[in-house]
């Protein structure tokens, strides 16, 4: 029998929703979680996990081809995209099955289908299989996530015009791909396809790829793109496309005038928007802003206090780990705990080559806030472990308040930045100072030493680089 009276109704089983349900179950709340189609959400099914699987595959192909410098000769490297997709699918299945198992193991009722608010404390649940039923709830969590933004001239058909979802499901490596949008999704997908054998052209409206990122970081990425043969058009706008025989022809407006780019696929990655279709927010009295996001306070409550929202539907930054932390907090709020989203930083990671990771304030943000700064930069070219990995592009940058040496932000562009940034996030969360990092003995030879050296550089006494 379906649950019709619950303490907590969770709508959406992505990285915000399923942690909310699991934590609520741990706290003894009678919980129903409703997921439209993909347990684990975008992240586990068509986002974070499958994209990182294919990015890893692309990097493996590239490293194999370059192994001759180490004295390792490999001949006849080829890509079987169907086998690669099967491998990726196995990872996704394992992860999504784990989500369902954890929800069930923590006592949550689970329904595959849709949930629509019919009032402030009621919702209609329509299962994929079975009859619709009404649910009364004490609290609810909206965790419906986001979807790719379409642009009018390039509607997605996932055959010629791809979203990130379509790009992750290709059964062959297209010869030529035009990527519209030079943000993190476009560059992650573009570089992955480039390493697998595609010729990539990026069209970006701004004056740099990775808009909003530290220009010093962007310079490293731009060099990497050029070195790998990726063509980039900046200050350019994709205006339309047509078919010419077997080719797709994309018309691009540039500062030098219109250009036509021939390709086999077009990948559109211009951002994401909140997903709230069919939720019945107005029936519940839940407000949305002009962009469709659901505003929340520090306890993740909407304007209807017993209805909470987490993750992408609440706005930027649209990051899975932010959604997960919010989901846990929302469940605790629903259980009556006096908690709030009071984290100091949400680290961000971009799985380009080289990787980018940031935590805390950027240099520009710190200066805008009026800080006088001490900055330490340590290049990977001076790190022994990076040299042994053939990964010497980029640097670690530590940004601190000149007055008291408190660490304000850390930016990493280079090998394993995605793993190294956790030390930075901890340092900022605990109000660490340059001396805390510089005086902490880091094991040798490791990539982590670069964080220590960058802090020491800011203090003027780094050992392996001139101060």
Would you tell me the structural class of the helices and strands? Answer: alpha/beta
CATH architecture of the largest domain: 3-Layer(bba) Sandwich
When the domains are counted, the total is 3
- What does the overall shape look like? globular
Number of strands: 21
Helix fraction by DSSP (H/I, runs of at least 4): 25-40%
**Widest sheet: strand ordering:** 1-2-3-4-5
Query: Spans with pLDDT under 50 lasting ≥5 residues?
Result: none
Question: Could you name the CATH class of the largest domain?
Answer: Alpha Beta
The proportion of residues in beta strands is 25-35%
Distance between the termini: 70 Å
Task: Say which CATH homologous superfamily of the largest domain is assigned.
Answer: FAD/NAD(P)-binding domain
Top keywords for this entry?
Enolase-like, domain 1, 467 residues, five-stranded mixed β-barrel, 3 domains, FAD/NAD(P)-binding domain, alpha/beta, 32% helix, 14 helices, five-stranded parallel sheet, single chain, globular
Describe it for me?
The chain has helices at 17-26, 41-46, 48-65, 81-105, 164-167, 184-196, 215-227, 281-284, 320-334, 363-368, 384-388, 417-429, 434-438, 449-459; strands spanning 5-11, 31-35, 109-119, 122-127, 133-142, 146-148, 161-162, 176-180, 199-203, 231-233, 237-244, 247-254, 257-263, 265-268, 272-274, 307-309, 348-350, 355-360, 373-379, 395-401, 407-414. The termini are far apart. The chain has three domains: 5-148 and 273-334, FAD/NAD(P)-binding domain; 161-270, FAD/NAD(P)-binding domain, CATH 3.50.50.60; 348-459, Enolase-like, domain 1 (2-Layer Sandwich). The mean pLDDT is 96. It is of the alpha/beta class and 467 residues long. 32% of the residues lie in helices and 26% in strands.
